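the two lines:
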Amino acid sequence: DAGITQSPRHKVTETGTPVTLRCHQTENHRYMYWYRQDPGHGLRLIHYSYGVKDTDKGEVSDGYSVSRSKTEDFLLTLESATSSQTSVYFCAISESGQARNGYTFGSGTRLTVV
Amino acid sequence: AQSVTQLGSHVSVSEGALVLLRCNYSSSVPPYLFWYVQYPNQGLQLLLKYTSAATLVKGINGFEAEFKKSETSFHLTKPSAHMSDAAEYFCAVTDNTGTASKLTFGTGTRLQVTL
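prediction for all of em together
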């Protein structure tokens, strides 16, 4: 989607290796989110950020960490990837902390852990 | 905590038929509600939103949804399905706990449109 890009789009990695996914936005939005999408579960929130260096956990944060050193970038790190972290990861941004206008989503990163 | 339930993981309709995708929400406060659509290998696109203004909300591509507080529902409808409507649809509700509102999503409904 315009204004938000995720990289890489696809990645295959081995169990136990660290992985970092990047979300980059050009909208200057304060709020950024990482979700994972799995069949039968919809989208579940991993972590979110409400400003530079300000982050908080979502419902499925175990095994993940995030960092936001500047407004435009929000990084998701799997410290030691496991097969259960095979998923499609979506980044989203929001101008409002009340999510009144919903989110704008990136195109996703498909991660396979073998 | 806020939550949404989408009834039916798969819905199949004929082209030209009515589309009805069901969503019920649970919220302790007046919610914001959303419907998103996801086409294959793409991200989610906002279809429409309810933010406590009109209860009948019109969105893109001819879709609309009606907020019914008494039934805690926010069902998505379209009078006449088109082949291009085949996609997965997600209902979402705002969760205002913590430092920012978060969207909580349903498990999704895959819409199939047949000739």
